[in-house]
Design brief:
Elements lengths: L2 H19 L18 H20 L10 H5 L23 H21 L2 H34 L22 E4 L2 E5 L15 E5 L2 E4 L5 H9 L11 H10 L7 E4 L2 E6 L2 E4 L11 H10 L7 H8 L6 E2 L22 E2 L2 E7 L25 E4 L16 E3 L8 E2 L3 E3 L4
Helix pairs in contact: 1-4, 1-5, 2-4, 2-5
């Protein structure tokens, strides 16, 4: 990557964030509907703060921040940078408003471009990894921006839509299985392109032979689980999961609502009758695990998922700007479908460091490593994931009780069956 390429990529990523925010009013962009959700304008400002903090502050001659208090308001979790505003309180920040955040973005954009225009080759070589990390960081927040506004709009009794239109499923084919040889395999980034530090180092792992379902579980299949008492049978659930079912009254996936005996699903394109052929989504890890137990199967480990995915091209329903929602798997191919896109897939693996992992020095090292506790790994990407942002080695992670991300499941079991 040279400076010309970097500027073009910077402009592309930054413009995409603004395109995603464009359908939203300033009022929409201010709401925080629960502690895990951040306001749209906070996402827009935080990714700008990232470039200002980690690129401009150390490399711009005579640097001064755009606004002194923005570093306090828009720092997310970087303790070494300084104090930050409490995450659950982001929705009470009525000022700066959405337009003022736009001013902030334009100021930092101009200064980044100016820096890249002037920088010498040696300095750019040192800057390039952080700038590229900033691109992928902003893409993560583009996905989160959509997940978060989905939750915000779901609570509005007027049932407003964000954008897009329904895309009907083509019916559901029978679930198929793909046998995968085990053995001593290599897991982790192969190099040759961007990866996050949590994808390293590449290392060996032993896998017994296993099978993966050829597609994601659908809404229709989930209805069968519910009809068989899935949310009422403690023997199907992990202990913490069963406690959540009872404490929070779970009876169906997040965003499902029943009216006059008909199930509806809230989506970014509106609240519509449930389509049985589409992948079930917005499941917690606990729900995914309970379904797998009910089906007599299990969730794949992250190593099993990655080993299977390496032979497939990274294509699928990613960055869906038509429906902003998972789509049906399509006809059987004899191989694995929906590996990339549609829904992030829960694995049975806890989010832990790979053997030999060391976070980067300084505040930038807080990006991933500090979260390696009480989280579960997801793989593959979803319908809201920007193109070029996921790969076979990508490790996403969420707490096991999280239901607001676009999360689904793929079944696994052991060895070949007749």
């Amino acid at each position: 990557m040279d400076t010309t390429t970097a500027i073009a990529r910077f402009d592309e990523v930054r413009a995409d964030t603004e395109r995603l925010a464009a359908p939203l009013s300033p009022e929409d962009q201010t709401v925080q509907s629960m502690p895990d959700v951040s306001p749209t304008k906070w996402h827009r400002a935080h990714v700008t703060w990232f470039f200002e903090t980690f690129v401009l502050a150390e490399n711009e001659a005579g640097f001064t921040p755009f606004q002194d208090q923005y570093w306090f308001l828009f720092n997310s979790y970087y303790e070494q940078v300084g104090p930050r505003y409490a995450r659950p309180m982001r929705g009470v920040i009525s000022r700066p408003g959405a337009y003022e955040v736009g001013d902030y973005r334009r100021n930092v954009d101009d200064r980044i471009r100016d820096l890249l225009d002037r920088v010498d080759e040696g300095t750019f070589a040192k800057l390039a990894p952080t700038i590229e990390l900033g691109f992928h960081h902003e893409q993560q927040h583009q996905e989160l921006l959509l997940m978060d506004i989905k939750h915000v709009l779901s609570l509005n009794p007027l049932q407003p839509t964000y954008a897009g239109r329904p895309v009907a499923g083509d019916g559901t084919d029978r679930l198929g299985w793909v046998d995968i040889d085990g053995g001593l395999v290599e897991i982790g980034s192969e190099g040759g392109g961007f990866c996050f530090d949590n994808e390293l180092p590449r290392h060996q792992q032993w896998l017994e032979p296993y099978r993966l379902a050829d597609r994601l579980i659908t809404n229709g299949e989930w209805l069968e689980f519910m009809a068989d008492g899935g949310y009422r049978r403690p023997e199907l659930w992990l202990s913490d999961g069963w406690a959540r079912v009872n404490a929070e009254g779970w009876e169906a996936p997040f965003y499902w609502r029943q009216t006059d005996g008909v199930w509806f699903e809230h989506t970014l394109h509106g609240t519509t009758p449930l389509d049985p052929g589409l992948p079930v989504c917005h499941l917690s890890h606990y729900e995914a695990d309970a379904y797998a137990t009910w089906a007599g199967k299990r969730l794949p480990t992250e190593a099993e998922w990655e080993h299977a995915a390496w032979t497939y091209e990274v294509t699928g329903n990613l960055a869906d700007r038509d429906s902003f929602h998972p789509r049906a798997a399509g006809p059987a191919t004899g191989g694995l479908r929906q590996l990339f896109g549609d829904c992030w897939e829960w694995t049975s693996s806890a989010y832990l460091p790979y053997p030999g992992f060391h976070p980067a020095a300084g505040a930038i090292g807080e990006y991933n490593g500090k979260f390696m506790s009480n989280q579960m790994v997801l793989r593959g990407g979803c319908a809201l994931t920007p193109p070029g942002h996921t790969r076979a080695s990508y490790r996403n992670f969420f707490p096991p009780g999280a239901r607001w991300p676009v999360t689904g499941l793929r079944l696994a079991d052991d060895g070949r069956r007749a």
